[in-house]
Amino acid sequence: MGSDKYPDPEILGAIEAVKEVKEQIILVGNVDLIRPKLEQASPNNPLISIVHAPEVVEMWDKPVESARQKPDNSMAVGVQLVKEGKGQAFVTAGNTGGAMFNALRGLGRIKGVQRPALTALFPTRKGKCIVLDIGANADCRPEFLLQFAIMGNIYAQKVLNNPKPKIGLLSNGEEAGKGNELVKETFKLLEASDLNFIGNIEGKELFGGEADVVVTDGFTGNIMMKSSEAVAKLITDTLKQELMRSFSTKLGAMLAKPAFSKIKSLVDPSEVGAAPLLGIDGLVFVGHGRSDAKAITSALLLAGSAIRNDLLGHLRNDISKNLSE
Fold it and tell me: Fewest 10 Å CB contacts: which of 63, 119, 174, 323?
């Protein structure tokens, strides 16, 4: 019940996901709304079940108030299923603040984690870059960013199969002395850590693929993410408009279709589908409210990969190890 057009993208996304992985998926939400649509799209599907949750955290709801006024909301019920071991990961395309609040309330933080971080995969010249935090924590301390780096490092290793990720610190200059006080103090902590820290990086180095993991505070990360999405949409929309202007440009567009398809896949958020909330003592993934069925499928497959690679176990062990050191 999370996406802007719920529950259709969630239902169709789940149907496609079970075709690929043959694993059980539980749809959490209003059963009277979900069941007829599920039966119409995929009758008697043995891999998809429904758990009733009569209330919904809408995008405009405030997290704390909605938890009080809607205790049986689909987020709270979904998180509870994970807590009880009836589910191994929770995926939502709903209210990010609501997802964070319900995850913290229901599952808590991994021991030693001071602040969970919302993570995103940014397209780069060389592949993908993990960026965190992208919105969970507007105000941060240096030790928070160090933990973000540790968690991002583990995520890159265990889910993206990168044995030695390069860690960068987002700043307004490459030199060690650049940045505000938060960046300067975080630089010292990262430099003294065992991480493969490559120093400060600017936005151009991020998109150039110079780092595999980039850490920043949630305020800066959220602005960067939304600005990047807006620029990508501006470029693709302008290209489409200009290429349709005349017969000759349309012909050129047809010849260059493979290149344009590649660009589209790079900037298409549905290719990844969701971002993990790292630091929560359970696997929680948050997608965009505009998620379509493809995005939901991608999110579910990503969650499945995290389960199979025991991301949560590695986070618990490595964070404990780093704290003891």
Answer: 323
